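#struct-queue
[09:14] JT: dropping the first one here, sequence first, then the structure tokens:
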Amino acid sequence: MSRTRVLTHARVRATVVAALLASLAACSSSGSPSAPDGKVKPSAADRPVTVTVTPTGEGVPAGEPVKVTAAGGRLTSVAVTDAEGHRLAGKVAADGRSWVSDRKAVPGAAYAVTAATRTEAGTAGTTKASFTTAPADQVNKVDWRPGAAATVGVAQPISLVFDNPVQNRAEVEKQLRITTSNDTEGSWGWIRDWSGRDRVDWRPKAYWKPGTKVTLNADLNGTDSGAGGGWFVRDYTTTFTIGARQIVKVDLDRHQLRLLRDGETVRRIPVSGGTPGGDKRSWRGTAVLMAKEGTINMNSETVGLGDAYDKMVDYSMRLTWSGMYAHAAPWNARYFGNANHSSGCIGMSDANAAWFYGQVRPGDPFEITGKDTKGVVEPGNGFGAWNLSWTEWQQKSALR
């Protein structure tokens, strides 16, 4: 009887041990659970990273940054290039989950995206994608001053005139970056150009410091002007230098012009300004020398003064778009230093005009005073921004 009990207990122990061994074998698999087909599934930590790229597709709207996101892992690098090999810069976020381009996708371009990834378990991978943007249905272009490598006077603004209207002014202004060698304070201001087109100028708070190096980077490619304006399809850049501090003081009451350089009077010149009492009066305020045009034809009909004159004029220096110049006026010699008797320009002798023409440069301010004038030069009539206070000028920024 006792022998039977021993055998029975032995059988029970054997059965329990076998069951435990089977259970342990099932829990100690080195791979993932088996799929129905018998293949081993990857663990959750080692599944491929899911990468999403926006925009996606063909002919998508331009004007948005490219975004790349990762799920189930991290981005280690992202490259976005167009068909010409130009690359959209950007940076992977600190958590590795996203990347956004610094610049926007431009119209009419094809982009290839390559995203390098790493799973939670450390396995590296690569995802590729592509998309194209719709071409621009209308293009906006820019005319800008001053030109590259120019040396200009201390009152020279940076001026951009647009072919088409700009409704998205804040968005455009965000793409305009001014860099100076001495951190000059300044502001953009939106105005209407004399031609009737939209325009944005950047002027310093005060006249430039001589020797300042200035660079404009207008990263406009891919920016939408708004309704009726179209897309910008290129960037613009210009670099220039500020020359000597020259200021031209024009006193129309005393019929005299003074050229000051670094605060010292270089020469006094007798002049004759616009005839008082009518449309021939000169403008007052600060006008900036726009260009030295040499010998040109001046026709009074082009400025609304009938047939008062039509002649070739030497040493012509443009001060406004409306037609005010400083120039040689030998036919008016008897009035120099005595009376204002011109059609609005500042006239002087041939000899003085030749000398003066050789001294001044575009960007030099002409500070004009006089009791009987037809008003202050408007900001868009040449470079008249200096006739606004600093506060007034700042209010013309679209970002204020």
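[09:21] JT: and here's the second one, same format:
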Amino acid sequence: MKRIFITGFALLSLFRLNAQTKPADSTAYKSTKLKLEEVNLISSYYKQDGDRSAVTGGVGTEELTDVSNAIDVKLIKYGKSGKKHTLDLEVGLDYYTSASSDKIDLQANSSASSADIRVYPSLSYSVENEEKGSTFAAGISSSTEFDYQSFGGNVSYSQKTKNRSGEFTAKFQAFLDQVKLITPTELRPSPDDRSYGTASRNTFAGSLSYAQIVNKNFQLLFIADLITQNGYLGLPFHRVYFTDGSVHIENLPDKRLKIPLGVRASYFLGDNFIIRGYYRFYTDDWGLTSHTADIEVPVKLSPVFSLSPFYRYYTQTGVKYFKGFQEHTAADEFYTSNYDLSKFNSNFLGMGMKYTPLKGVFGLKHFHTLELRYGHYTKTTNMLSNIVSIAIKYK
């Protein structure tokens, strides 16, 4: 779930670095000192509601709000050999309140799980040989909240074709996670027991992609992923109610193989219209199959202002281990009542606005771009959400 409101325009003052002056007699000059390329501030406010909470066995409130802020800083330099070095640092902070998580203790009005903070920094470094058209990149990341800790790493290699119209990329990612085993209070040895254990969850993903400029108006991107997970793949506070009224903890297999395949296309209709389309097919060995179709049409209304209406349709089958409230029996080896794993369709539509004034946003020269987006999401499991986001680019 992605969410976003803005705090900290003042943070940009920390990045008012003096870029090295370009010599007047050299239009091809490339700085060999690390300099600021751009800073991006992204914030959002997200709110959802529904009545299919997995915490209470597929019934009950899904109400949640989330305020998210992230800052992304990109620095570049050219080495003595002419290679381009890019260092990218991002730090994100989410604060959320969740009525459904509060129901881990059915008697509580305000448990420790009713609100939480997630912090997620990441650092990436890339080296691009512009002459040969090749790029090597590596990165690390982490995500920390009360009941979840994740550490990630990735490496990638990209190679452009000889005529620079195509580019092939191979990427590998790994995430090593620890899940805190916070069980519902009625299933603990004692309701006041806070001696939570932990369980590991590992994710490994390989990705291949190929981008092609077909002509001056048409571009294509093909993506194929292979993702494998092992370890504790459920959540310990997701209840499952059996037909006999007994309550259990969600139990899912400890392995999962996922295969997403996607294609993205952009078509430029003159100088003022772009049609961007995306389709993804997904399947896994839990029996879930899904289709995603997405379209966005940026329209340039003036040299500095554009609007981008967008729409995404998504449909999936349910995993073979899903059943609703009080539908599982003791004969089921694996069981979940998490409606994210059920059969459903969803719609997400909204509008984006992009403003790039010649003299800078608010008349400030280095505030290069302001973007606003609003999206409304509905799901056939009776869940809906809204998100408002703002992004500012400083160059």
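[09:30] RK: nice, looked through the second one.
[09:31] RK: The first strand starts at residue 35 and ends at 49.
[09:31] JT: good to know. The chain has no helices and 19 strands.
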